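Morning F.,

Quick status update on the modeling queue. The single chain you submitted on Monday has been processed. Sequence for confirmation:
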Amino acid sequence: KLNPIGKSRDGRIGSNEYFLEALKCKPTDARNRAVFAWYTGNKANHAIADFDVAISLHPTDAYTHKLYAMWCMNQVKKEIDITDTVELLKLYNEWQDKDDSIKAYDGRYTKSLSISSLLRTTRTEWDNVQSLISWRRWYQDRAVHKNLADLNLLSFDIGMAIEHYKRTDNRLMLARCNIIKDDTGKAVSILGSVIKEGGTLFQQNLTDIKKILTISISSDPKNHQTFYYLGMVHTQLKKDSIAISNFKTTVLLNPKHIGAHMNLAKLYSQADKADLAIKEYETILEHAPRHKEATHLLSEAIMIKYKDYE
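Structure tokens below.
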């Protein structure tokens, strides 16, 4: 506990002696052995051997099985980027009708370990965990759902992946899953909720959100909300010219989209294009005559335009 285990590679390597001392003191302690494998398993084959020993020492310890399942999934994710929607979509389209989708990873390895084998081990270990703990513990454990969501996504069981990601409230992964499932509208709606909140999740994932929205356009190029949300993302990224293009496409597809007209007006005002801003505010008031913000900003834009006239 005193050593900075897991914080750096040197910290993990330096902690070996402490783990080994613990194992000497209690050689039949399965959890000690499993934790040793988790933190110091720089050599993957040695880690698997230690996990196997831990499970043989205490086969009914759900914690040991859980740790092994999570370790296997972490190894897979070092090789396969589950946030690469394009790659996963390609694999999904090629293998979704196969009886064993895990075979899609045959011939791929990470640290000399077969990815297919790691995924099967992950599934087996989670089955063991589920058989050893209560339904309530299973349902309430976010780590379980996060890991199973990743497993189901990589196994192309998108429906189950979505169910598990919902329980972790991972909306970016939910959006990715819906793109793969070919439910672009749902994916855009999920991202829209993130964008409208404008919180940390949005601010820290602007690039990822932009990528997912861009992919969705190829599936549904007439969804005006996709272009609207892209405009909001590009506004945050300070790419105003691209944002203006996105909002223009939005109103082309949906001329009554108040939000797009409002954002266009504000961007035009910032660019000292008063005439264009006024036109957008007037358009808003045509569709929503009692729109207070548009009324106020229109008056301001007119005053700015004629500020040099007495």
